[in-house]
Amino acid sequence: MTRALIVVDVQNDFCEGGSLPVVGGARVAADIGELLHRWHSRHEDGPTYDVVVATKDHHVDPGHHWSLKPDFAESWPVHCKVGSEGAGFHPNLDPQPFDEVFYKGEHEAAYSGFEGRTAAGEQLAEWLRARDVTDVDVCGIATDHCVRATALDSASEGFATRVLTRLCAGVAEDTTAAAITEMTGAGIEIA
């Protein structure tokens, strides 16, 4: 078994003070940062991941995904614009070097990390398979949007998938609960 951690969209714009903040985003960033520190230092109580990757919203012009009058279902305020401070990893994450970063949504809406590509153009599923990954843990922002989409795609790609809810922040209680129900129904472990 080879296990990967996917850290989803822990970016400034999705944390408090950003253009599309999720309550608890900064706390989640700090908690994931602590987990990454234990992993990188090979601390005895640290997690045992073979690879750790991150996804980033990476918008240049995503069309109707951005709106001045967003409906917060299909359209959103401007966020994670390439080159902006909002697109950067949140400082609480204190990211050690990830094994890879996958950028998504340059010219379209993109919720799943599996829609992302490396700077060299490699897709997440093929990157994981090339490293013999069988099991995937998912954490990040937001439980009811990009975490959900990434976990569902992970499961559909055949990876044994687990969502670490203590390391996630959701937009709203009802949509987060619905996302957890949907993920459970897809055979995803909720931890």
Automatic annotation (TrEMBL):
<dbReference type="Pfam" id="PF00857">
    <property type="entry name" value="Isochorismatase"/>
</dbReference>
<keyword id="KW-0662">Pyridine nucleotide biosynthesis</keyword>
<dbReference type="InterPro" id="IPR036380">
    <property type="entry name" value="Isochorismatase-like_sf"/>
</dbReference>
<comment type="similarity">
    <text>Belongs to the isochorismatase family.</text>
</comment>
<feature type="domain" description="Isochorismatase-like">
    <location>
        <begin position="4"/>
        <end position="188"/>
    </location>
</feature>
<comment type="pathway">
    <text>Cofactor biosynthesis; nicotinate biosynthesis; nicotinate from nicotinamide: step 1/1.</text>
</comment>
<keyword id="KW-0378">Hydrolase</keyword>
<protein>
    <recommendedName>
        <fullName>nicotinamidase</fullName>
        <ecNumber>3.5.1.19</ecNumber>
    </recommendedName>
</protein>
<dbReference type="GO" id="GO:0046872">
    <property type="term" value="F:metal ion binding"/>
</dbReference>
<dbReference type="InterPro" id="IPR052347">
    <property type="entry name" value="Isochorismatase_Nicotinamidase"/>
</dbReference>
<dbReference type="InterPro" id="IPR000868">
    <property type="entry name" value="Isochorismatase-like_dom"/>
</dbReference>
<keyword id="KW-0479">Metal-binding</keyword>
<dbReference type="GO" id="GO:0008936">
    <property type="term" value="F:nicotinamidase activity"/>
</dbReference>
<dbReference type="GO" id="GO:0019363">
    <property type="term" value="P:pyridine nucleotide biosynthetic process"/>
</dbReference>
